[in-house]
Amino acid sequence: MAYEELHHTMHDEVWFLDSSCSNHMTRNKEWFFEFKEGLCKTVKHGNNTTMIVVGKGSIRVRVNGFTQAISDVYFVLELKNNLLSLGQLQEKGLSILIQHGSCKIFHPKKGLIMHTDMKGNRMFYVIASTATKNLMCMQANTTSDQETHLWHCHFGHLNYKGLNTLTCKEMVIGLPPLKVQHRICGTCLIGKQQREPILKKCLWRASKQLQLIHADICDPITQSSNNNKRNILNCIDDFSRKTWIYFFCKRNLRR
After folding, report:
1. N or C: which end of the chain has fewer CB within 10 A?
2. Could you read off the pLDDT of 45-62 as tens digits, one per residue?
3. 60 with 132: CB under 8 angstroms?
4. Do the beta carbons of residue 128 and residue 10 sit within 8 Å?
5. Global pTM?
6. Residue 182 to residues 145, 157, 159, Cα–Cα distance (Å)
7. Distances (CA, A) of 114 to 13, 24, 200
8. Could you give the domains of the chain?
């Protein structure tokens, strides 16, 4: 690959747009915010040399003032230049226009996200600073009702007093102070509702024999019958309280 050698101070932030490269590749492991090792793959270059792919992951880069997340990037230690595969970008739904000495990459919703002119050796590259540098974590002191309810759900519908106890005693890292909500949680109502008491007396009784039969199956009993049956069908007439008991085997029911 006849790539132009750039100055060392900016070399690591240069990404070449390559139409012949099958995958995005970089040699800088610090750029990955998601990384998986043990890929056990190799990549082959145009001069028939091969390099080992150590891992694969996702990186964030800032191009033309916009932060872009690039997934499925190979980590290759022996690589000399960072490569962006135009074919892989098209698979992600991006449109690429190379015309009149410039290369433009369009997102279906965001529009133009990358633009570069042709450089020496008829190559296209972009200067992309890593988004992992100088990161700052900003946390608001107040939370919205929706976020408060989300924390309530994440902790198994714990009451808001218990959530604030976790915050005050610093028992959970990153849990912000939450204000008590007056909205009713439907899940809590269903999960904590009481069951109606079981009536001791039936409200309706049969007025004649065989009008209502109560049946129950008991199985299996420890002691088998004389016919080696361990299942019992118990039937009770609601009017006369007459009881029938039948012994049976489960295999008879399957037949």
Report:
1. C
2. 777 788 888 888 998 888
3. yes
4. no
5. 0.46
6. 10, 14, 12
7. 15, 16, 76
8. 8-130 (2.40.70), 145-190 (no CATH), 213-254 (no CATH)
